[in-house]
Amino acid sequence: MANRQVAPEIKDAINYTLELKPYQKYSLQNGIVVYAIDAGAEEVVQIELVFKAGNWFEQQNLVASATNHLLKNGTSTKDAFQINEHFEYYGSYLNRNCYNETAVLSLHSLTKHLYELLPVVRELITDSTMPENELDIYRQNMKQKLEVNLKKCDFVSNRLIDEYLFGVQHPYGKYSSAQAYDALQPELLKQFFHQYYLNGHCTIFIAGKLPAGIEKLLNDNFGNLPVNKEQLSQRSHPVEAAVEKKYRIMNDPEGIQGAIRIAAPFPNRHHPHFTKAQVLNTLFGGYFGSRLMSNIREEKGYTYGIHSYLQNHVQQCAWMISTEAGKEVCEATIAEIYHEMQVLREQPVPEEELLLVKNYLIGTLLGDLDGPFQIMGRWKNIILNELPEDYFYSSVSEIKTVSSRELQELANEYLHPEKFYELVVV
Amino acid sequence: MIQFEQFELANGLRVIVHEDHSTPMAVVNVMYDVGARDEDAAKTGFAHLFEHLMFGGSVNIPSYDEPLQRAGGENNAYTTNDLTNYYCQLPAENIETAFWLESDRMLSLAFDEKSLEVQRKVVCEEFKEHYLNKPYGDVWHKMRNLAFIRHPYRWMTIGAELSHIENATLEDVKAFFYKHYRPVNAILTVAGHVKTAQVQELAEKWFGDIPSGERYIRRLPQEPVQTSPRKQEIHANVPVDAFYKSWHICSRSDSRYYATDLLTEVLSGGGSSRLFQSLVKEKQIFSNIGCYHFGSMDAGLVTIEGKLVKGVKMEDVEAAVESELQKIKDTTVDEKELRKVKNKTESLITFEDMSLMNRAGSLSFYTLMGNTNMINEELDRFQQVSAAALRHEAETVFDNNNSSVLYYFGNH
Questions:
Q1: Contact: A367, B239; criterion CB under 8 Å
Q2: Which of B22, B91, B354 is opposite residue A363, by nearest beta carbon?
Q3: How much is the pLDDT for A80?
Q4: For this structure, is B265 an active site residue?
Q5: For chain A, is the Cβ count within 10 Å smaller at the N or the C terminus?
Q6: Chain A residues within an 8 Å CB radius of B205
Q7: What pLDDT score was predicted for residue A368?
Q8: Sheet of B25-32: strands edge to edge?
Q9: What is the rounded distance in angstroms from the CA atom of residue A64 to the CA atom of residue A359?
Q10: Is B262 part of any domain?
Q11: Given an 8 Å threshold on Cβ–Cβ distance, is A144 in contact with B69?
Q12: CB–CB of A88 and B271 under 8 A?
């Protein structure tokens, strides 16, 4: 008979050796650097073309994201329908995403269809025409979507907290508006496409079960693009953080919940505190057993969920606490968040809790490396943030060795309520 | 081809093992044959509330999460109208911790008054966050009520109203547990870096002595065949009008299911799909449109929904949707379009199967449906659907007498 009173023996996850499968790296004829992971059991492949074409580089709000979106909506020989039909006929998914520094065109496909698909990907990044009627439809539909989203307290709060942290002119702080959509013109998009895609800066990440001759295939399709010729001119965007720290916004008089956002500036991944702060953050509000979740959800029932996290920006981050709580318990929730900060500042984390969090972090990291796409995701983060090659291993080692005393020091340096912006949107 | 072994314990617990030694991890998935459809109409939202209580401590273990996290694991759960699923992933060497935790909460919960009180509040906040405090959040509440008269699909998993959750008692909770959360109504799937013999031994050790329980025989009220169109108008504080129309479809286990699923792909499975191309791009009467179903185990619904471009009339968009449906009823889809939706389905299945967690979930689901090997047979069934079958399915389903429509008007 099993003795149910006693937990089975475990191997502490911190005793595991984690391995991140190394990538292969090579350059195409025109200097495009390719990072490749050949792994996995299924005959699938993911290829990402990463351009330095995020909103960091735009002169006018929304131009970067609109250009990225319309990459799929027309070339000189194909209209949007024909482009979509081609990728969908082969059962593939062609997505585009625009971020702050980068903009990405990504393809997920069965390996066997790659030969039919890559020439059309090439066509999109050399010959997109940014048709005016497609822009009109995009503008109209995005404005409607925005109008709906502005009714949601969480959506509104996410925009405002970024504005307070970075300023509404900064790439991390600015956001969409009906006026900004109205101001989009095809010429602006064409210009942006010409400068930041056609003659821009491109890196390729490819992962999955790669076909023989993949290097030649990439060279045939992308090796003679006119990219990566010039150094991108550096652009700097000064942060203009708000002076006022506390905000209460009434967005919907009939709302029954408030979206709470509490945030303070935090350095980027290059800072020596970053990984250790991630451990402290996990303990604070970064997993289901966290202090915030245990207190505010599991003990008091104020919310369905509360989370804290370090933002994933390249330049400048923020430490963010985020939740939606009943309108009448919002202020009580904020008081409890600050109370948990105080406990972390004043009392060392018990050894048992710290070991649990370390095991949890290492265990989930082990589980996250499930397959070639996830492995490449880790590498991409390291490469695009220009972190040292051994970043994965050094951060694993930091997670394993950080002490309770160090976490308390970090709490005393960063987790002070007066450093945080405080926002409730009902 | 996904390999698996299966066996059954003396108490009726069905066990599936899927070995995959390319990962250091293991997934333990416990699926219970109970969902919102099994609830009393006066006590809805119970299966889901119960899912929350499953984390409030079991008879011998005060906390589920802590020991699992200490063993490097993470977990989650979900409730649908059909079933409730609990899954965790942890380093394979610590797999016994998952057996210990899952078996103890199958043996018995702690039934703690405080835990019930807190989770009632948490679920009420979840209800508010997802269904009350969101524009259009009440749509499915209304649609289920309109489309179903008798079948318990007429309420959502979160419950028909907040008061049902607020009034739940510890007695209700106990009765629900001993009726549904028994080995004979459960499926245990273990996947990853494990051996079948090892799983056999652990399953016997931890689950073998749990009383079998009574097999739950499902006797749900059947939905009468709908014979005339239904329609409801809603006026709400939203900025944009929205259109929702549903039709009854076959159950998940029906051979017609595959044609129904491919129909939704033809209609809205991407940028080259018919509804998107015709109504968003060419006619520009919708700002977005989708056609989907939930793959529910009893006969459910297929739904077309979209938001109207400002200034367009509700009657006009409905006519335009119907005219697209008429085309698919009148004309057989050509070979290229059929190939396209089948290729998409093939990709979708392949990408889904990449994740160990998904494989464990699918193995459990197909076992619940009665044939674990469906995981390897589904693609072939999609491949066999003919253009004629697709057309026939469209004619059967998209009959106006089989439809329920919601006109959701905003304030502008």
A1: no
A2: B91
A3: 97
A4: no
A5: N
A6: 2
A7: 87
A8: B5-8, B14-19, B186-192, B25-32, B84-91, B74-79
A9: 41
A10: yes
A11: no
A12: yes
Clarify whether residues B333 and B245 are in a common domain: yes
B-interface mutation test, from A136, A147, A358, most B Cβ less than 10 A away? A147
Tens of pLDDT, residues B155-202: 999 999 889 999 999 999 899 999 999 999 999 999 999 999 999 999
In the numeric block, the tokens 């491919």 are attached to B262
Min Cα–Cα distance to chain A from B252, Å = 23
**Which residues of chain B does A72 touch, with a Cβ-Cβ cutoff of 8 Å?**
271
The CATH number assigned to the domain holding B50 equals: 3.30.830.10
Are residue B247 and residue B370 in the same domain, yes or no? Answer: yes
- Please identify which residue in the block is written with the tokens 């002490």: A403
Q: Give the model confidence (pLDDT) of A407-419 as tens digits.
A: 999 999 999 999 9
Which residue ranges in chain A fall short of pLDDT 70? Answer: none
Chain A environment of B92 (Cβ under 8 Å): none
Query: Which of B84, B72, B75 is CA-nearest to residue B28?
Result: B75
Q: Report the 10 Å Cβ neighbour count for B108.
A: 16
Q: Is the ipTM of this complex over 0.95?
A: no
Measured distance CA(B297)–CA(B257) in Å, rounded: 10
Cα–Cα–Cα angle for A144, A196, A391, nearest 5°? 95
Q: What residues in A contact B66, CB-CB < 8 Å?
A: 289, 356
Residue type, A416: H
Q: What is the CATH number of domain A246-425?
A: 3.30.830.10
Measured between CA atoms, how close is B220 to chain A, in angstroms? 31
B125 → closest Cβ in A10, A85, A326: A326
Give the separation between CA B140 and CA B131, rounded to whole angstroms. Answer: 9
pLDDT tens track of chain B, all 412 residues?
A: 999 999 999 999 999 999 999 899 999 999 999 999 999 999 999 999 999 999 889 999 999 999 999 999 999 999 999 999 999 999 999 999 999 999 999 999 998 898 899 889 889 888 888 888 889 999 999 999 999 999 999 999 999 988 999 999 999 989 999 999 999 999 999 999 999 999 999 999 999 999 999 999 999 999 999 999 999 999 999 999 999 999 999 999 999 999 999 999 999 999 999 999 999 999 999 999 999 999 999 999 999 999 999 999 999 999 999 999 999 999 999 999 999 999 999 999 999 999 999 999 999 999 999 999 999 999 999 999 999 999 999 999 999 999 999 999 998 7
Contact criterion met (CB below 8 Å) for B192 and B25? yes
Decide if domain A24-222 falls under CATH 3.40.50.2300: no
Question: Given this model, what pLDDT does residue B239 score?
Answer: 92
Query: How far apart are the C-alpha atoms of A226 and A280, rounded to whole Å?
Result: 46
Q: Do A84 and B270 touch (CB under 8 A)?
A: yes
Residue B317 structural domain: 230-409
Q: Which of B8, B39, B51, B223 is catalytic?
A: B51
- In terms of CA atoms, which chain A residue is nearest residue B124? A304
Q: Quote the pLDDT of residue B187.
A: 98
Residue B94 in tokens: 């610590």
- Min Cα distance B247 → chain A (Å) is 26
Q: Which chain B residues have a beta carbon less than 8 Å from that of A324?
A: 125, 129, 133
Question: Which of B96, B97, B355 comes nearest A370 by C-beta?
Answer: B355
Same domain, B201 and B289: no
Q: Are A39 and B97 in contact (CB under 8 A)?
A: no
- Determine the residue type at A233: S
Nearest to B134 among A92, A152, A300 (CB): A152
pLDDT in tens, A302-358: 999 999 999 989 999 999 999 999 999 999 999 999 999 999 999 999 999 999 999
Q: How far apart are CA B260 and CA B385, in angstroms?
A: 10
CB atoms within 10 A of CB A25: 11
Interchain pair A326, B94: CB under 8 A:
no
- Residue at which a domain ends, from B174, B207, B240: B207
